[in-house]
Amino acid sequence: MLKLSAHSIAQSLIDNGIIENESRELYEFGINQMIVSIINLFITLVIGLCFHMVWQLFLFMLTYIPLRKFSGGIHAQTQFRCYIASIVMLCLVCLILKYLNISIVALIIIYSISAFTIVFLSPIEDQNKPLDIEEHKVYKKISIILLIIESLFAWVFYSIGLVSVAQCMLLVFDCIFVMLILGHIKKIKRDKS
Fold first, then answer.
1. Whole-model pTM?
2. What is the end-to-end Cα distance of the chain in Å, rounded?
3. pLDDT beneath 70, residues of the chain
4. DSSP characters for 40-92?
5. 124: β partners
6. Cβ(157)–Cβ(169) under 8 Å?
């Protein structure tokens, strides 16, 4: 359905002389990505409103998306499954932030395990988008840099008393940890078959 919408919009742009027919595929891809981004933004907003946690979810996504992009991990087979998994993850994030009170000691232990895993496992590539050796090195380096920067921000927020902001950011590392572990397991199973 999204591809059909992107196709229709691109066709309209061609019909009105705004773009050339030779550029159709590029524009269809760009339009499709824009529609997906708008849907993701809308879903995040709706979930945030339902839980009364709009700023927390947007902070979570602002921290999560760049690190997830470069660290990789498990990916859904279809776009619909990806939406469902994202909705479940965002709801779980809200529930954890709202109802789970984690001590600083537990927070440090969980963070350490997650950060260690991100450093050593990333990037976990998807079978549909394999990385060459150079890309693998670049993605790993960027993952580690993002981990360090985001960790520093989280600990600064924590140290100045913005605990809820820090917890929101630290939860990102736990989610990336899960994605990497699941991606690693999937990769091992795929390599065996």
1. 0.83
2. 33
3. 1-4
4. HHHHHHHHHHHHT-HHHHHHHHHHHHHHHHHHB----SSHHHHHHHHHHHHHH
5. 72
6. yes
